Amino acid sequence: MSKTVREIAELYTSYFKGKGHTIVPSSSLIPKGDPTLLFTTAGMVQFKPLFTGAVELPYTRAASVQKCVRTTDLEVVGKTERHCTFFEMLGNFSFGDYFKKEAIEYALDFSLNHLHIPKEKIWVTIYLDDDEAKKIWMEAGIPEERIVRLGKKDNFWGPAGDSGACGPCSELYLDRGPEKGGPNCGNNPDCKPGCDCDRYLEYWNLVFNQFNQTVSGELLPLKQTGIDTGSGLERVAMLLQEVDSVYDTDELKSIIRKIEELSGKTYDESTKQSFRVITDHSRSVFFSLGDGIYPDRTGRGYVIRRLIRRASLFARKLGIHEPFLYKLIATLRDLYSVRYPELKDKAKDIESILKKEEELFLHTLEVGLEELESLLSQLKSNGQTLVTGKEGFRLYSTYGFPREMTKELVEDRGFGFDDLGFEAELEKDRDLSRASWKGKKVQYLTGLSASAELKTEFLGYTATKSPAKVIYLFVDGKSVSEANQGSDAVVVLDKTPFYAEGGGQIGDWGYFKKEGFQFQVQDTQKENETFLHLGIILKGKISVGETIEAEIDTTRRQNLANHHSGTHLLNGALRRILGTHVAQKGSIVSSDYLRFDFSHPKALSEEEIISIEKDVNEAVNAKIPVKTEVLDIDTAKQSGALSMFDEKYGSSVRVISMGDKSKEFCGGTHVSNTKEIGYFAIIKEGSPGAGNRRVEAICGDSVIEYFLSQFQTLAAKIETHNLSAKETFGDLKEFGIVSPVPAPEDLQSLFVKQGNAAVEHLRKLREDLETELEEKSGSLFKAKKKKEQLSFQMNPELVDGLLKKAHSFSKGKVVTEVFEAVDAKALKDLADSLKAKEPEILCLFGTRDGDVSTLVFMCNKVLNERGIHCGDLLKETLVMLDGKGGGRPDMAQGGGKKPESLGAALEFALDLSKKKLG
């Protein structure tokens, strides 16, 4: 019965190809056109429009091996035998073709004759009233005593996200024998599928799609019935290879062997949690980076960053104190490039990105863990059991510990964690402006004058790290000779690679290090010729006169250089296209975006924006060397270099030239060749004041992420309003895209093929889609919105539908729902109707209208007495939407951005509620 993972996958696709199925490649981990999902979580996600009839069917039968990521049970990964964040899903699908009979017969035939599972070991479950499925199973040879009826929780599936195809299901189980039963099971005849013990293990789920669930919870008949199946590849391998854990299957075991080789440790009972976490998380990160999901502060990127940091933490338990995960990429490439050949060419880039991200975290991990250990020891000695929000936020802001990671660490040690207090600290931090640092700049230099001995030599044009001598220290605005761990300090060096904020470019971040000492530079400012490094001492102490190693954050510096050079090209393009009257009035160059203010009497037309964007991208694509010269001021002016009219310059100036595209006075950091900028896209145009205009733009990989987000939002609108994208928008082959709305992999491919030209094509495509969508569905939007506003308060069908799908817990019920373009009053009216009918219910409602998200949380006082506080719950949830709001224990309302994250935000709120009502 034993087969390798690869053999099982090949058997599966070969079998269903022989049954007339089109073998469809795995889709991206970024769900196409479904902003309710952070990741692709099931094989059917890419087929959702085919089930609902929203698009023309390219085939009626399909099968796939789909890569998936789920992080709902992240904290237990490594502790159990089967939990993973990354897994592969085998699936066969029918869209109006075959239904229950064939699906059941295929599953049984494949199990018996290809996987060679003994028939007497197979049990099945069916939905409570699905007599049709029972009859088919019995006719196929499964006796009635091995068919178990289960309820909606177990045997009614879907949809994936807030809406889509769903229906009753039937599952196949393998009987692993009474020895796998729980303490009360053994040979107990009442032990059967549905029991919590490990005797019966589900390995295949057959979903009989009959309904389309709308975002309001209404079940409508599908235009055609369908079959959606899912079988976890790793789980099937575990059963066939007769091992107790998915981590003991052949592919995962080979990763574990590599970790043993690299770490010098043995995989055994004492180390297995660390080995399993590293094995699992390395796969999730490998595949996510391969699909263009990069570590970030929010959304999918935040999840990936958290996985990397969690794996680093567990690597440390194996005695590994250096970047490590990236060393597994070659092994992962060799394992998975057979099924996913595109990963072969991406492996080197993935390795590079992962190594940099590990280095970023390892700068502070060890010191942060020491800080946490000290904190917990102090709490224990004081008889305290709670880590406050302030203490947790310090670990986050100073040492880069994600909130969830800190929570997991302290709870493992028996301490509680103040989630609400953490959120309050996060909100305070958001409200602090960087100006507060700048306002203290002069205070820090009290008693010091502009003099030769205070001049800092800047090395950052050619160096990213350098030894340097500490010449002044400031703590609390006062000059000191020594500063200790935990101090917020300002350090002045004799020389530095850190760029101090100026010319619109913000200051560098990074670290100062020497044996037993580490300082995190959180900003770099400048007063006269003195560079101020503002930050916190993470470890040890430092004294004036000592020598340290200063090293900047190179990834951030590269992003700053991309955006600064992009700003120069933008200035040149504006003058060429709008006229030489254009004069720079101000700019901001950050690592995330650029902002440029200039003189111009009117708003830019769409044609002008396209022309400017095209001009810059042509310059990027031309691979122009960036030339730097230091000239005397008169020579520089005569050369035609542009300068800010109100800027003060010395007798000599630095001039940056990019061929005939740009020539400007500038002291900032830049790329060495325009090609390094990657891509350029304008994301906003407006006015900061009379007679001036403002352009915001992005460079590099941010451009790809931006268009992905734009098209996902469009696709969601199309699907939400049941518009046929194929009929609405026609064929888009002229853009090199076959699907009606481009998937993430389509966009990635387009950028690879067309480079910078893809920006212009995608902008035009997006505008065409938006225009046609508005024309074809504008009246539909208005009619639907009006109807919903009028019918929410007294709509018994809607109320009953929501009550039926409410989540039931021991102390109450919770209903979550996302609505399109509904005002907050209508949501409150609906919640009042629900509360009147079910006093013990918590309503978690969200609505999106354009770029705006709104949340309304309501409950009766009976739930307040059980620990629910709507205002507190709302504040925690709004962090996912970059929003603000608040309210009373029984009612709260707030607003934010990120409409694509509304579904995920409500899922987060549901998880928080479950902890109170569970």
From TrEMBL:
SUPFAM superfamilies: Class II aaRS and biotin synthetases (SSF55681), Putative anticodon-binding domain of alanyl-tRNA synthetase (AlaRS) (SSF101353), ThrRS/AlaRS common domain (SSF55186), Translation proteins (SSF50447)
Cofactor binding mode and count: Binds 1 zinc ion per subunit.
Binding residues annotated for Zn(2+), in chain numbering: H564, H568, C666, H670
Annotated Gene Ontology cellular component terms: cytosol
Cited InterPro entries: aa-tRNA-synth_II/BPL/LPL (IPR045864), Ala-tRNA-lgiase_IIc (IPR002318), Ala-tRNA-ligase_IIc_anticod-bd (IPR018162), Ala-tRNA-synth_IIc_core (IPR018165), Ala-tRNA-synth_IIc_N (IPR018164), Ala-tRNA_ligase (IPR050058), Ala_tRNA_ligase_euk/bac (IPR023033), DHHA1_dom (IPR003156)
Enzyme class: ligase
One GO biological process term: alanyl-tRNA aminoacylation
E.C. designation(s): 6.1.1.7
Reaction(s) this enzyme catalyzes, per UniProt: tRNA(Ala) + L-alanine + ATP = L-alanyl-tRNA(Ala) + AMP + diphosphate
Keywords: Aminoacyl-tRNA synthetase, ATP-binding, Coiled coil, Cytoplasm, Ligase, Metal-binding, Nucleotide-binding, Protein biosynthesis, RNA-binding, tRNA-binding, Zinc
Chief location bin: cytoplasm
UniProt cross-references to Pfam families, sorted A to Z: DHHA1, tRNA-synt_2c, tRNA_SAD
Co-factor(s): Zn(2+)
Ranges in a coiled coil: 340-382, 752-786
Matches recorded under PROSITE patterns: AA_TRNA_LIGASE_II_ALA
Lineage top rank: taxon: Bacteria
GO MF entries: alanine-tRNA ligase activity; aminoacyl-tRNA deacylase activity; ATP binding; tRNA binding; zinc ion binding
Domain Alanyl-transfer RNA synthetases family profile: 3-709
Record bears the keyword Zinc: yes
Entry's family note: Belongs to the class-II aminoacyl-tRNA synthetase family.
Function noted in UniProt: Catalyzes the attachment of alanine to tRNA(Ala) in a two-step reaction: alanine is first activated by ATP to form Ala-AMP and then transferred to the acceptor end of tRNA(Ala). Also edits incorrectly charged Ser-tRNA(Ala) and Gly-tRNA(Ala) via its editing domain.
Domain characteristics, as noted in the entry: Consists of three domains; the N-terminal catalytic domain, the editing domain and the C-terminal C-Ala domain. The editing domain removes incorrectly charged amino acids, while the C-Ala domain, along with tRNA(Ala), serves as a bridge to cooperatively bring together the editing and aminoacylation centers thus stimulating deacylation of misacylated tRNAs.
HAMAP family: Ala_tRNA_synth_B
PANTHER family: ALANINE--TRNA LIGASE, CYTOPLASMIC, ALANYL-TRNA SYNTHETASE
Record-given protein name: Alanine--tRNA ligase
Species, as recorded: Leptospira perdikensis
Native organism taxonomy: Bacteria, Pseudomonadati, Spirochaetota, Spirochaetia, Leptospirales
